[in-house]
Amino acid sequence: MMGLLRSALVIGRRDFTATVLSRTFIFFLLGPVFPLMFGVVFGSIGARVAGKQEPPVVAIASSQHDFAALSSARDQIGAAGAGQQLVQLRRVDPAISGADESKLLFSPDSDVIAVMRGGLDHPHLTGDIDPDGTIATQFELMVEAARAHPVQLQVTSIQRTEPSNTQARTRTGQGAQALLFFLTMLLAGMTLSQLIEEKSNKVIEVLAAAVPIEAVFLGKLFAMLLASLVGITVWASAGAAAIAAFTHGDLGVLPPPAVGWPIFVVLVVVYFAMNYLVLGSVFLAIGAQASTVREVQTMSMPVTMSQLLIFGFAALAVGSPNSPAAIGGAIFPLSSSLVMVARAAELPQLWPHLLALLWDLLWVALIIKLSAGLFRRTVLKSGPGRRGLWRRAAAQP
Amino acid sequence: MGISGVAVEAEGLVKDFGETRAVDGVTLKVPTGSIYGLLGPNGAGKTTTLRMLLGIIEPSAGSVRLLGHSRPLQAAREVGYLPEERGLYPAMQARDAIAFMGALRGLPVREGRRRADALLQEHGLGAWAKKPIRTLSKGMAQTVQLLGTLIHDPKLIVLDEPFSGLDAINQGKLETLIRGKARDGVTIIFSTHVIAHAERLCDEVAIIAKGKVAFDGSVDEARSRLRPIVRLRTRNRDGAWRSSIPPASRQEGNDWIFELPESGPEPLLKALIDGGAGIETLAIERPGLHEAFVAIAGQSAAAAMGEETAK
Predict the structure, then answer these.
(1) C-beta neighbour count of B184 within 10 angstroms
(2) Looking at chain A from residue 19 to 38, which residues have their Cβ under 8 Å from any Cβ of chain B?
(3) Between chains, do B87 and A197 touch, taking CB under 8 Å as contact?
(4) Does position B3 have pLDDT exceeding 50, yes or no?
(5) What integer pLDDT is reported at residue B144 of this predicted model?
(6) What average pLDDT does range A186-203 have in this prediction?
């Protein structure tokens, strides 16, 4: 066992340094920055467009009193939910001349769409508006509210003693699940092509003569996991810095998970590693059968789709962590980590996680063992051939 | 190491690839400290036999003992292997490639780099130690891989067609290296399809043809196994004398070529003279390794070897 691990370390060290110390790894690290850059660029364009679509202004040519009443009516309607879609009000001198009014309405520099005269008693709206349109209707409401006597509504505010955390926590679970799925989908696919180099440059013969194939698989798997974690660490640090810079640390939108944040964060990292190892070992086994890059590329689409399927399956478990679907998903090795990370958000017990981690490790070992055997048989052409089996069968009539 | 001074022992090795039987019951004993050659044409099963001996592939049937281990990979730290198809990571520096091959066999990387630098210097490649493999010439890369095979001071060195692709000078260097290692008590197994290499270097050879060991022993033994060859030309085409020529003889033009019968030359001569053959020429020759190979492995195998050597 120690020999296997030591050999895996030699293989893994070579792969890790070859991956991380290559020029292409810089592109790998920069990869997620591209969509981010797009986000920033399009976000600022969007903000400018949104800025131009601010609600129109109506100039109120009235007394100070009427304007105040109208303004407070507008605020009241806004507070009731109409929000930013309400017209804005601006007071102008009630004795405004016709020329000034025209200037307000027609000058290209002016943002005034209509002018109101006549005060609250005889409101008269002039402007490029539809008499039954949004602006006129909003204005009607405002005037009515401004005229009415203020109503003293008595409100008794109560708070639910127990916030609906179970439901809210599913959001945390879903978030963690989505994060794990997304990262694994982006990163585990790399393992598909891990043996192409050795197969094409014949190094595999040198490796296979010196160390067990299991050690080669194990080393490669952990090297890729480590390279992925380096990437994630870089992205997460950059992301955290960006969030701190742009949002002033205001991210407390997710409800705290059932096991508490510190343990949950540890579990997310550990389950990411497990998810990566289980799926990565399967992909490594599949990719090891391919002999050309073209074959690997052809295989990567079905592999991504199958991940999507697993994600869908795991998503069923969120919200009902003790349902048969959730238990089944936790037992099925390919979805186990995704289901269990959601469980960590929803339920506080820790022992199922220990069990799940052991279960996952068992599967990683099993998949590596099986795929190494498959590799020996199909790629290195080892073991008893078909003819051998047939002969044996023929020898036993 | 084998108790009885046997480094490698194979018993009834069989390997099937689908419907094809590549190796068919190979049994070998390689004495410790010897230079042992596997001689045979391409496709005879030499590489497959070596791969089974090393544990890269498992045999369909039969067993292997390598340096006393029934599972060859358990002896991996004491074995060095140069595959027929050479392979190195192109982006790796020469010294790192050598150290990596040592690390695979349990040599600490730091020590591997130290030895690699010394070995590269010794082989005139000191300036290339920190250059990536892809910038090296084919011959240099081959030397690097050979050094990587030897870096951990193995007790057993297995070289698959080590001379192919080398020029005459480097072939000579390699022969010297092999002899030197053997003097230090290292067991060396190499495969070749060039009879001359086997004849010059080997203490013992196994002649492999069509997946079987046709002969296993010393080169002299192989040659002395053959009876002397009689080359006879007669004036008469037919007659009572014909009964004295063995049925397995072959005819080349007017010459009869056959092995000297067990009874020796005298009864043969008497029968030819009494039978009225009219002897024109008669030669009795001691066979070389090539003839021994033809006799042991068959004419077609020898022809295949000839073609490859000519290439």
Answers:
(1) 9
(2) 22
(3) no
(4) no
(5) 93
(6) 86
Contact residues, chain B, for A22 at CB < 8 Å: 91
In sequence order, the β-bridge partners of residue B29 are B9
Give the domain ranges of chain A. Answer: 55-147, 165-387
| Average pLDDT of chain A to the nearest whole number | 82
Interface contact flag, B76 A207, Cβ < 8 Å: no
pLDDT of residue A391: 41
- Looking at chain A from residue 340 to 369, which residues have their Cβ under 8 Å from any Cβ of chain B? none
Domains of chain B by residue range: 6-218, 227-286
pLDDT cut 70: percent of chain A above it: 85
Tokens 């068919």, located at residue: B24
Q: What separation in angstroms does the CA of B225 have from each of A37, B121, B151, B291?
A: 81, 46, 39, 11
CB–CB of A10 and B89 under 8 A? no
Match 């020429």 to its residue by tokens.
Answer: B281
ipTM over 0.90: no
Whether B58 and A375 have beta carbons less than 8 Å apart is answered as: no
Residue A384 touches partner B, C-beta closer than 8 Å: yes
The 3 state secondary structure assigned to chain B is: CCCCCEEEEEEEEEEEECCEEEEEEEEEEEECCCEEEEECCCCCCHHHHHHHHHCCCCCCEEEEEECCECCHHHHHHHEEEECCCCCCCCCCEHHHHHHHHHHHCCCCHHHHHHHHHHHHHHCCCHHHCCCEHHHCCHHHHHHHHHHHHHCCCCCEEEEECCCCCCCHHHHHHHHHHHHHHHHCCCEEEEEECCHHHHHHHCCEEEEEECCEEEEEEEHHHHHHHCCCEEEEEECCCCCHHHHHCCCCCEEECCEEEEECCCCCHHHHHHHHHHCCCCEEEEEEECCCHHHHHHHHHCHHHHHHHHHHHHC
Q: Pick A381's closest partner by Cβ from B55, B57, B89.
A: B57
3-state secondary structure of A111: coil
Residue pair A116/A123 in contact (Cβ under 8 Å)? The answer is: yes
B55 vs A contacts (CB less than 8 Å): 209
Which helix or strand (DSSP H or E) is residue A60 part of?
A: strand A57-61
CATH of B6-218, one of 3.90.226.10, 3.40.50.300, 3.40.50.20, 3.30.390.30: 3.40.50.300
Cross-chain Cβ contact B56/A206 below 8 Å: no
Mean predicted confidence (pLDDT) in B246-261: 85
Q: What is the dihedral of CA B284, B287, B290, B291, to 10 degrees?
A: 60
Task: Read off the DSSP letter of residue A130.
Answer: -
Strands B204-209 and B35-39: parallel
Query: Cβ-count burial of A281 within 10 angstroms (0-12 exposed, 13-18 middle, 19+ buried)?
Result: buried
Inter-chain contact A384–B60, Cβ cutoff 8 Å? yes
Interface of A with B in 194-213 (CB under 8 A): 197-198, 201-212
d(C-alpha B292, C-alpha B207), whole Å:
10
Distance of alpha carbon A81 from alpha carbon A87, whole angstroms: 14
Architecture field, domain A55-147:
3-Layer(aba) Sandwich (3.40)
Tokens read off for A339: 């289901």
